[in-house]
Design a protein that fits this description.
Layout (H helix, E strand, L loop, with lengths): L19 E4 L5 E4 L12 H11 L1 H7 L21 H5 L13 H8 L2
Antiparallel strand pairs: 1-2
Helix pairs in contact: 1-2
């Protein structure tokens, strides 16, 4: 929906990824510095570090950083993909990989 316009996006990750300036009321601004914790009284840096360690970087990046793909990372890396000689000869590409089953489907199958 954002691409269609009409929306302002307010993205506030738990740990600021870059310096960013926000316009407040009455012509005031606030500059949030890279590394600044969003609400340190509620979730201080050591709590966020522990959450990242226990959740893993992808889940933490999604839940706390508002970024489903962690900085410097990706779900699929280019080197994991193989090209088929036939498709590559014609300038075409075909990609295929297994999709994980939802936990519910796995649990239902194991308990049936």
């Amino acid at each position: 929906m954002h691409e269609q316009g009409g929306f302002d996006v307010l993205n506030l990750p738990a740990i600021a990824q870059r310096d960013e300036k926000f316009e407040l009321d009455d012509c005031r601004t606030y500059t949030r510095r890279k590394g600044e914790i969003l609400h340190a009284d509620r979730e201080p840096a050591y709590v966020l570090a522990n959450l990242k360690r226990t959740m893993g970087p992808i889940a933490f990046s999604t839940q706390y950083q508002q970024a489903p793909i962690p900085p410097g990372g990706t779900y699929i890396k280019r080197e994991w993909l193989l090209q088929s000689g036939h498709a590559a000869d014609r300038g075409l590409a075909h990609q295929s990989w297994p999709h994980p089953e939802p936990a519910r489907a796995i649990n239902q199958r194991n308990h049936a």
